[in-house]
Each structure stands twice: as structure tokens, then as C-alpha cells.
């Protein structure tokens, strides 16, 4: 029930605290274009400043799914689906701690000789004896699950990566459950990889994970090496089973080597995971858990160290890999975590208290799902999106040029809200714009922005009321403020476009 409570917290965060991710809106627009034009590389129609060469919507299946969910049940159903995914990731992460189970093969439980005295048993057999003695480390699993949730939940929202993380968590749970003796269900990883590769680029991590597992099996259990080598090959083939393969590879390489917005750490989730107050907590937890693994290294095998190395490299590469780190490292930390008895959780009063909290929590979530006004729901906790400014533009500004000037974070929302009348200047798809565009706008100076805006003809600009990087240059060009609230302003040109 403690794990269920953690999964409820994960769902509650989505329902009561989170707003829509900025990328969700352009994903919905792309889903509409895919439904209209077919599943293949598209020429962008959302932004007037994007490159007009075919680009690869590598998350095409997720975008079509998101569009179908939205058309069926609007933001309420989208929120419910996201909450289910968030809870599912937490439950699967907890389930991946199966090496702690007496049935596990990866810690030597089945092979342990429990008749020997503890001092003569290997470290793995001693741990197995402890487990079979009744201490199943329920509290340890709960604490590690909470740690994984802390790393993961900030990145869960209604977008393709959430669906990919759910599948990745299932794959890791399957691998950790079977240890170094793959069963028939382990081969479910192959079709899961095929599905995942049409949802997000994270599918490329699965063959790498299987390669690390195969390499570990070479040292830990040579008899299983061939099976894992074959599984690695099969998942590599499955990861190629997408009509967007070429473009997906190109996009992945661009993100890692050539995207100026990623290189400049402009995007929050592309920054190092240890930035900010929350990041410092994550770094402290990381150091503590790695130290624990070092101290209790005899409980780990070569496969565990390879998994942990892969997870750590990804974590330090980009902050957005924090959920991958949490999912992938959970089975390793579960084996190394010191035994903590869960006997206190078995007491009737504790069970009753947990049950009461779960029931009260579920009841508190229901009113949040009853909201019908999307604009009010979107900004219910903290004003984030220019809903009133968008309404002003829709009502008061006729689309002569059919173009809007905007900044990075609002491009997706404005394209979704006003896309039937206007194209936006930019959105979150950084790969669709020339590096010179970013170097002239968000990575540029007031002078470079002014020079770019001189070439732009638009009907209006929807900009932040404070700290706008484009507002000053537009004022120099004679644009006037037609609307203002605490969050956003709407500016119009001195001369209306023809």
C-alpha cells in the first residue's frame, strides 16, 4: 500500500499541480497534419520562419495517439491518460526491484546453499538467506521508489516521451525480474522496442541496454551470453522498424552535436541535472547512492555496474535523462541498499492509516477532473500561458498576413490556439530552424533581433509582459501595445500588413 500511495502521489501531481507541457500543443498540431497528409516526413505549416524542407516527426505514432485522445475527451482525458502513465512508471520502477525477491535468480537465491553457516556463504548467498528468512526489504523498496519518483515526475506530462518512459520502465522491469536467465516473456522486449521506436528517440537506448546486459552476462553467466547477444540484435532490428528511421537518426545526431539551443543550455530540461535547488538535492542523492553501491559492491555483479554506468553517463549528459537514470538504476540500487525491515508496515493500524490516506487522496482528485473551462484549468495554479491575450488576438485582430510574432515557450500554445488563422514565428522544434535563426533571436543581441524583425511582416506579436527579448526591438520599429495583462502583451505594427 505504501507503493500504491507513491503511485497516487504521482497521479495527483499530474492532476492537481501540473500544467500542460509547452510541447504538447505543437505535438497536437503535428498529429493533425499527420492525419491529413499521411505518415511521412512533412513540410512544416505551423511556423512561417521554419525551414521549408521535409522534416521528420519521429514521434508520429504518439502524436496521432495524442490527437485521438484530445479529440475523444479533451484535456480531461489527456490528464487522466498522463496520470495513469505517471502512476504506471512508479509501479513498474518498484516492480523492477525484483532482485530483492526470494524468487530472483540475479542475486543467487535459487542457487544459494542455505544449509551453510552465514559466515561461509558468499555475499550473494548471505543476502539470499536473509531474504528467505523473512526480511523482504519492503521499506527499502519504498524508499528507493520515492527516490526514483523524485528524479522522474518533473518530466512526466502529456507528450510522447511519457509513453516511451512507461514502455522503457516495463522493459527494465522484465529484464530485472528475469535476472541473467531470460525467460519467454523477456522476448516481449522486442515488440515493445518496435512500438517505442515510433513513439520517441529513447527507443535507441534499448539495444544499448541489451548490449550492456549481454556484456555483463559474458562475465556473470557465460551460458546466457548468446541469448542476450541474440536479444540485442533483435532489439536493434526492432529499433529500426519505423518509417521515420533516417530522419530520426539525423535528428538524434543534431540534438547531440549541432543544435545551438541545446548547446547553449537554453532549454531547461537540456541543462545539467544538478542545476537549481532541486538539482542540488538530486546530486546529493546520486552521490549517496553511488557511495552505497561502492560500500556494498559485493552484492553487485558486472551487469549491475554496466547498467549503473550507462544510467550515470546519460544523467550527466542531459537533465532530461533523469527519468531514464531513475528507471535504469533502480534494480542496481535495490540490490545494494542496506536491509530495512518492513515489519512496521505489516501492523494493522499502519495498513489502516495508509488505506485511509489512499482513499482520501482519490476523493480529493475527483473535483480536479470536473473542470470544463480549459483556459481556467491551464492557469489554475500559476499563470503560464497567454490565454487572454490569445483570445484578444482571435477576437480583435484580423489575419491579413496570417502571421504572429512570439517567443520560444509560447509558440506551441499559440500555434494550437490560433493556428487556423496564423502561423507563429517559432516553437519548440529547434531542429526545424536554421542555426542562424536562433543566433539572431534568443541567442542573439538586441541588434540581431532588430535586424531579423525588420524582415518580418506580421499582424501582431504576443509576448511576455516582462523580460521579453523581442518587445524592445519591436518598439523601435514602431509597434504599439494593443493589450496588456499581468502575463502577456499584444503588440500591433504601425502599418497594417496588406
Give a description of the structure:
With 498 residues, the chain is mostly helical. It folds into two domains: 2-101 and 136-356, no CATH class; 383-492. The chain contains 21 helices and five strands. The chain has helices spanning 2-17, 22-37, 60-95, 123-132, 138-152, 160-178, 189-196, 205-220, 225-238, 245-257, 260-263, 276-295, 302-317, 322-336, 348-365, 374-378, 387-396, 411-418, 435-440, 446-453, 471-476; strands at 403-405, 423-424, 460-464, 480-484, 488-492. It has a five-stranded mixed sheet with strand order 2-1-3-5-4. The radius of gyration is 25 Å and the shape is globular.
SSE blueprint and pairings:
Blueprint: H1 2-17, H2 22-37, H3 60-95, H4 123-132, H5 138-152, H6 160-178, H7 189-196, H8 205-220, H9 225-238, H10 245-257, H11 260-263, H12 276-295, H13 302-317, H14 322-336, H15 348-365, H16 374-378, H17 387-396, E1 403-405, H18 411-418, E2 423-424, H19 435-440, H20 446-453, E3 460-464, H21 471-476, E4 480-484, E5 488-492
Parallel strand pairs: 1-2, 1-3
Antiparallel strand pairs: 3-5, 4-5
Helix pairs in contact: 1-3, 1-5, 1-15, 2-3, 2-18, 3-5, 3-6, 5-14, 6-7, 6-14, 7-9, 8-9, 8-13, 13-14
Summarize the structure.
Helices cover 56% and strands 4% of the residues.
Amino acid at each position: 500500500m505504501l507503493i500504491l500511495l507513491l503511485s497516487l502521489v504521482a497521479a495527483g501531481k499530474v492532476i492537481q499541480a501540473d500544467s500542460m507541457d509547452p510541447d504538447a500543443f505543437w505535438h497536437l498540431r503535428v498529429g493533425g497534419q499527420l492525419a491529413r497528409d499521411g505518415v511521412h516526413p512533412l513540410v512544416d505549416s505551423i511556423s512561417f520562419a521554419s525551414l521549408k524542407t521535409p522534416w521528420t516527426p519521429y514521434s508520429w505514432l504518439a502524436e496521432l495517439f495524442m490527437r485521438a485522445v484530445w479529440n475523444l475527451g479533451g484535456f480531461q482525458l489527456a490528464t487522466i491518460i498522463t496520470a495513469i502513465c505517471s502512476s504506471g512508471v512508479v509501479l513498474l520502477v518498484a516492480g523492477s526491484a525484483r532482485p530483492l525477491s526470494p524468487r530472483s535468480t540475479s542475486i543467487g537465491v535459487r542457487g544459494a546453499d542455505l544449509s551453510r553457516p552465514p559466515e561461509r556463504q558468499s555475499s550473494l548467498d548471505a543476502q539470499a538467506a536473509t531474504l528467505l528468512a523473512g526480511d523482504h526489504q519492503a521499506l527499502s523498496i519504498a524508499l528507493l521508489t520515492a527516490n526514483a519518483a523524485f528524479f522522474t515526475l518533473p518530466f512526466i506530462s502529456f507528450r510522447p516521451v511519457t509513453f516511451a518512459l512507461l514502455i522503457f520502465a516495463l522493459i527494465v522491469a522484465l529484464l530485472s525480474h528475469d535476472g541473467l536467465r531470460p525467460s519467454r516473456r523477456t522476448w516481449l522486449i522486442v515488440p515493445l522496442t518496435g512500438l517505442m521506436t515510433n513513439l520517441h528517440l529513447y527507443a535507441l537506448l534499448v539495444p544499448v541496454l541489451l548490449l550492456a546486459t549481454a556484456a555483463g552476462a559474458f562475465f556473470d553467466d557465460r551460458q546466457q551470453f548468446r541469448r542476450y547477444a541474440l536479444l540485442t540484435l533483435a532489439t536493434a532490428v526492432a529499433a529500426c522498424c519505423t518509417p521515420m528511421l533516417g530522419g530520426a537518426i539525423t535528428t538524434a545526431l543534431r540534438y547531440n552535436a549541432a543544435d545551438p539551443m541545446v548547446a547553449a543550455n537554453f532549454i531547461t530540461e537540456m541543462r545539467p541535472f544538478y542545476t537549481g535547488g532541486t538539482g542540488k538535492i538530486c546530486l546529493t542523492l546520486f552521490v549517496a547512492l553511488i557511495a552505497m553501491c561502492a560500500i556494498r559492491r559485493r552484492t553487485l555483479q558486472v551487469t549491475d555496474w554496466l547498467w549503473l554506468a550507462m544510467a550515470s553517463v546519460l544523467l550527466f549528459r542531459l537533465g532530461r535523462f533523469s527519468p531514464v537514470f531513475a528507471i535504469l538504476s533502480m534494480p542496481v540500487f535495490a540490490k545494494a541498499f542496506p536491509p530495512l525491515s518492513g515489519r512496521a508496515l505489516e501492523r494493522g493500524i499502519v495498513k489502516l492509516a495508509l488505506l485511509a490516506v489512499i482513499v482520501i487522496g482519490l476523493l480529493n482528485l475527483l473535483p480536479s477532473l470536473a473542470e470544463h473551462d480549459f483556459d481556467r484549468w491551464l492557469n489554475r495554479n500559476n499563470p503560464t500561458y497567454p490565454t487572454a491575450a490569445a483570445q484578444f488576438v482571435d477576437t480583435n485582430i484580423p489575419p491579413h498576413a496570417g502571421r504572429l510574432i512570439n517567443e520560444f515557450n509560447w509558440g506551441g500554445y499559440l500555434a494550437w490556439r490560433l493556428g487556423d488563422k496564423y502561423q507563429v514565428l517559432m516553437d519548440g522544434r529547434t531542429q526545424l530552424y536554421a542555426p542562424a535563426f536562433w543566433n539572431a533571436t534568443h541567442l542573439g543581441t538586441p541588434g540581431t533581433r532588430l535586424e531579423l524583425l525588420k524582415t518580418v511582416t506580421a499582424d501582431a506579436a504576443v509576448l511576455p509582459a516582462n523580460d521579453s527579448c523581442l518587445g524592445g526591438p519591436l518598439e523601435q520599429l514602431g509597434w504599439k501595445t494593443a493589450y496588456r495583462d499581468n502575463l502577456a502583451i499584444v503588440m500591433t505594427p504601425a502599418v497594417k500588413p496588406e
